[in-house]
Amino acid sequence: MKDKNAVKARKGRKLSNKNQIRRWILKSVAETTPKTAITLHAIKKFLDSKQNGVSNNPETKMITKRLLESGHLRKVDGRYAAGKRNEKR
């Protein structure tokens, strides 16, 4: 039983870490428009300001790719801008 609980705890922490990275990426581009898009370097710099070394994780690249595919991020001339608008505001 201890093994199952340990595995679940690790998966939960990893999932919450991915969600946190996703939120940080979206927050870094929240106030952008296609005209004021930011570079990938600026996003990585923002992530590192939140948690040291998080921008070098392979998960970060995968999360960014998924956000682009889902439309939450938009790529404009090699820069990134906010995609879908949040309707809750």
Shape estimate: elongated
What letter string, H or E per element, gives the SSE order? HHHEE
Number of strands: 2
Q: End-to-end span in angstroms?
A: 44 Å
Strand content: 5-15%
Supply Rg.
Answer: 15 Å
- SSE-based structural type: mainly alpha
Query: What percent of the residues sit in helical stretches (DSSP H or I)?
Result: 55-70%
Largest sheet: 2 strands, antiparallel
Mean pLDDT over the residues: 86
State the assembly state of the protein chains: single chain
Put simply, the count of helices is 3
Order of the strands making up the biggest sheet: 1-2
Give the uncertain stretches in residue-range form: none
InterPro entries: WH-like_DNA-bd_sf
Protein name: Histone H1
Organism: Caerostris extrusa
In short, what is this structure?
This protein has helices spanning 2-28, 40-50, 58-70; strands at 73-76, 79-82. Helices cover 57% and strands 9% of the residues.
Per-chain topology:
Elements: H1 2-28, H2 40-50, H3 58-70, E1 73-76, E2 79-82
Antiparallel strand pairs: 1-2
